[in-house]
Write a structure and sequence with these properties.
Structural class of chain B: mainly alpha
Oligomer: heterodimer
Largest sheet of chain A: 6 strands, mixed
Shape of chain A: globular
Radius of gyration of chain B: 20 Å
Shape of chain B: globular
CATH architecture of chain B: Orthogonal Bundle
Strand content of chain B: under 5%
Number of helices of chain A: 9
Strand order of the largest sheet of chain A: 6-7-8-3-9-10
Number of strands of chain A: 12
Number of helices of chain B: 14
Radius of gyration of chain A: 18 Å
Largest sheet of chain B: none
Number of domains of chain B: 1
Order of helices and strands of chain B: HHHHHHHHHHHHHH
Distance between the termini of chain B: 22 Å
Largest interface: A-B, 37 and 36 residues
Number of strands of chain B: 0
Helix content of chain A: 25-40%
Order of helices and strands of chain A: EEEHEEHEHHHEHEHEEHHEE
Chain lengths: 252, 339
């Protein structure tokens, strides 16, 4: 499913997010990059329905997300937060089950069908063996995967991930990115992910969005838009691009 | 795998949770200064049920029907009410220290009872006044928190402020009270299950029952809400509405209980934690088990309060003096985070 943003305005204090037009192609991975404070997470939260836009909004297949009810939106759009701090140390399966909230009436508990969906999601991220383990006992990388599994149990068409690789070592970073790629390829999900690691974005994303100071500077496939001048203008630092065996590599 | 062992453990705890309150209830019927032989209990009860409360009256029937039975029922319901509300509020506010005190309910009820006992006399019963002001306190907390009520810190801060206000008002009433009214008030504040009549219970127990049943119905929803506002919202939960729903239910249940029992502290804090230590944080287990163990604990505490010594110890004091050290021992021995 295609998602797009039109005439979106959101302001918080002196910060203002303003995006006239931005399209996220269906069944593709789009990476949103840019310096700290560029508005990447804010944009993602507007898409997720956490922050209400002042004007304009986000649309999926022409439907305005802000006009959908909570349950309806949750079945369409899933959001994977940056590693949050939780109070209660739920078992992994119980945690993933919370992804089924949009399918379960208020005064009910998960049924066998929901448990099946949660197990299937854990299977997909490769953590089926850990379903009884308490969440706090997991490594940082495993927690990211469990957070993704919960959103998978929600079965959304659009997946939003807020910096899913921050603080991960290179191996886990690559694993999470490869999983994100599989979501678009195997599940036909429209994946929108904020990232700091430009090399990961270049390797795994179909499309990149460069943001700075609440606005979009450039958007499109990495090969089309990425050059030294763009990096210089977005990050205010010199980053070289060199060719190594047919691949473009960033050099600082 | 530890899964099957966990399941056996949970099954065992569930069996205990069902049997324990029933067993304690039956045993407590025989307990008290007026001894009623166990074999007489059932005939008296069946005769009372079939004659609709009237019928022939013997001292034993009088004690059992008019004094002991309402007291035991109140202990079960009030204990369950305090524990279930505590567990629900802790999950909702993602804060293990929250219980009915945090929403101003206890001091609101105390102030209401004080007004009635000191100034209004028999016109407005203490129970009714306590209930009204417990609800007023919760509404005041929600009002003070205002639009930011969805934020945990704001609502807890409002709770502290409103509690402080009602505490000050309570002191003011105490200051003006005559010695006799003051004595009655202090006795009420220490908590007692012995004052309850069938008339009080006819109002209080249904309210408590409905509140507990609804909170048990919401038990899995509390898992989702306990992840925090933003996440619950992205998972499809109408956070604002469900938050108010849980607060209203918890307030209703505790206010209905506190109005008849007086201030009984710590049940709402200790029981949910004991349950979490035993079965983990999943509210699908924590909420119903809190009801069962809260009921059992308060019944047991009341048995001790009324029969351990020649005189009756106020139950509010007993739950604090016995409950807190017990809790500290468990805290030290568990040696890890159980939330």
């Amino acid at each position: 499913m295609k998602a797009h943003v039109a005439g979106l305005v959101f302001s918080y204090g002196t910060f203002k997010l303003k995006i006239d037009e931005l399209v996220f192609p269906g069944s593709r991975v789009t990476a949103i990059v840019g310096p700290n404070g560029a508005g990447k997470s804010t944009l993602l939260k507007c898409l997720a329905g956490i922050l209400p836009p002042e004007r304009g909004g986000a649309f999926v297949d022409g439907r305005d997300l802000a006009r959908l009810g909570g349950r309806e939106r949750a079945r369409l759009v899933g959001y994977v937060p940056q590693e949050p701090t939780y109070m209660f140390n739920y078992a992994v399966l119980d945690f993933v089950l919370t992804g089924r909230a949009a399918f379960i009436p208020r005064f009910s508990s998960p049924a066998a069908l929901d448990v099946e969906a949660a197990r299937e999601a854990l299977q997909f991220v490769g953590l089926a063996d850990l379903e009884r383990r308490p969440f706090f006992e997991l490594s940082s990388g495993e927690r990211r995967l469990v957070l993704i599994a919960r959103t998978l149990a929600q079965r959304p068409s659009i997946l939003l991930l807020d910096e899913p690789t921050t603080f991960l070592d290179p191996r886990h970073e690559t694993e999470v990115m490869a999983l994100i790629r599989r979501l678009a390829v195997e599940r036909a999900a429209t994946v929108i992910v904020t990232l700091h690691a430009l090399d990961m974005a270049m390797k795994f994303a179909d499309s990149m969005v460069f943001m700075k100071a609440g606005a979009v500077v450039a958007a499109g496939p990495p090969d089309d838009i990425l050059d030294e001048a763009l990096l210089r203008s977005v990050y205010d630092v010199d980053i070289g691009i060199v060719d190594v065996a047919g691949r473009r590599v960033l050099v600082r | 795998m530890s899964g099957s062992r966990n399941r056996t453990r949970t099954t065992a705890i569930t069996v205990v949770a069902i049997v324990l309150p029933l067993l304690l209830f039956v045993l407590s019927l025989n307990l008290g200064t007026y001894r009623i032989p166990p074999k007489d209990v059932l005939p008296i009860l069946t005769r009372a049920v079939f004659s609709g409360g009237g019928g022939e009256s013997s001292p034993a029937a009088d004690v059992l029907i008019r004094i002991r039975l309402p007291r035991l029922l109140l202990a079960l319901f009030a204990g369950a009410a305090l524990a279930v509300s505590g567990a629900s509020l802790q999950a909702l506010f993602r804060n293990p220290l929250v219980f009915e005190f945090s929403l101003g309910i206890s001091y609101g009820a105390a102030f209401g009872a004080a007004l009635s006992l000191v100034f209004l006399g028999a016109k407005v019963p203490a129970q009714a006044a306590a209930f009204v002001f417990a609800v007023v306190a919760v509404l005041a907390v929600l009002f003070v928190a205002g639009r930011a009520a969805s934020q945990v810190v704001t609502i807890l801060l409002s709770g502290v402020i409103v509690s402080a206000l009602f505490q000050a008002l309570l002191s003011l009433v105490e200051f003006f009270a005559n010695p006799y009214a003051l004595q009655a008030l202090i006795f009420w504040l220490m908590g007692s299950l012995g004052q309850a009549t069938w008339t009080d219970l006819a109002i209080s127990l249904p309210l408590i029952g409905v509140g507990i049943a609804a909170l048990i119905g919401l038990r899995w929803r509390l898992n989702v809400l306990s992840l925090g506002e933003d996440e619950a919202r992205t998972l499809g939960v109408d956070v604002r509405r469900e938050k108010v729903l849980v607060i209203v239910l918890a307030a209703l249940t505790t206010a209905a209980a506190t109005a008849v029992t007086g201030v009984i502290s710590w049940i709402g804090l200790i029981v949910p934690h004991l349950v979490r230590m035993a079965v983990g944080p999943d509210n699908r287990k924590v909420i119903p088990l809190s009801a069962a163990f809260g009921a059992s604990l308060l019944l047991l505490a009341d048995d001790i309060a009324r029969s351990a010594f020649a005189f009756e110890i106020p139950i509010g004091i007993l739950t604090s003096v016995v409950g807190i050290p017990f809790f500290i021992v468990l805290l030290k021995r568990s040696g890890k985070v159980w939330l």
